[in-house]
Amino acid sequence: MIRFDSVSKEYPDGTVAVGGLEMTAPTGKITVLVGPSGCGKTTSLRMINRMIEPTSGRIWIDDRDTTTMDAAELRRGIGYVIQQAGLFPHRTVAANIATVPMLLGWDRKKARARALELLERVGLPTSFADRYPSQLSGGQQQRVGVARALAADPPVMLMDEPFSAVDPVVRDQLQDEFLRLQGDLGKTIVFVTHDIDEAIKLGDQVAVLRVGGKLAQIAEPARLLGH
Ligand code: ADP
Ligand code: ADP
């Protein structure tokens, strides 16, 4: 479980991106943060892995206060996927996927085997292992981004508009595959999107934010007001 306990973020220029957020993302579920551009979704997400430090408040993962944890240790337990997969262009697909395992000191063989296993999991042929990211379509790169985030089997996944940059047909496919994958893996996921349809499709729980980073409502998709 991830719990925001009165979390605020004010940027140095005085912008209040997140204002006293109280929210829980349950273990093993997909919690979607949705809302208009600038409502503090990305800021909220990045405070979970401490790419951004809150101005005040605490974020708990289970019984641990992340704000007092060693950031490197914290991030080992958190996969992170962004909109433009953010793959390393000069590393092969397998090397990209194995990034975290290699940092953790896995031997090469084991890391490669894990990369091949994950390629299959995200619906790509293992023959892609030795390609470079530029030799993949946008949708395929996103799949590799998901595989890379899963490599060390983190219990928590943070996903920031992971499917927004691909065309609608591929997006639909990626969403379906993602739901199937999550059905097997049961990660604790916080997923950011500005697209309410995507939020309703993917979320076990949907948190609607409004500008200033305040919660307008949080509910199961079927119980969202106005839908
Ligand atoms: P969202 O992801 O919902 O679009 P963000 O979390 O990116 O929202 O941004 C929330 C607010 O904080 C916006 O007003 C944005 O302009 C502002 N903001 C984001 N990053 C910074 C920054 N580094 N410095 C100042 N303001 C920022
Ligand atoms: P999409 O419709 O999914 O965006 P693309 O038109 O980008 O697909 O690519 C179609 C197919 O061609 C994909 O299987 C992709 O892996 C392959 N492909 C694209 N660019 C290259 C390349 N530079 N080298 C080798 N294969 C490529």
From TrEMBL:
Residues of the signal peptide: none
Q: Which molecular function GO terms apply here?
A: ABC-type quaternary ammonium compound transporting activity; ATP binding; ATP hydrolysis activity
Q: What is its EC number?
A: 7.6.2.9
Q: Any idea which UniProt keywords this protein has?
A: ATP-binding, Nucleotide-binding, Transport
Q: What class of enzyme is it?
A: translocase
The superkingdom listed in its UniProt entry is Bacteria
Family of the protein in this entry: Belongs to the ABC transporter superfamily.
This one is known as ABC-type quaternary amine transporter
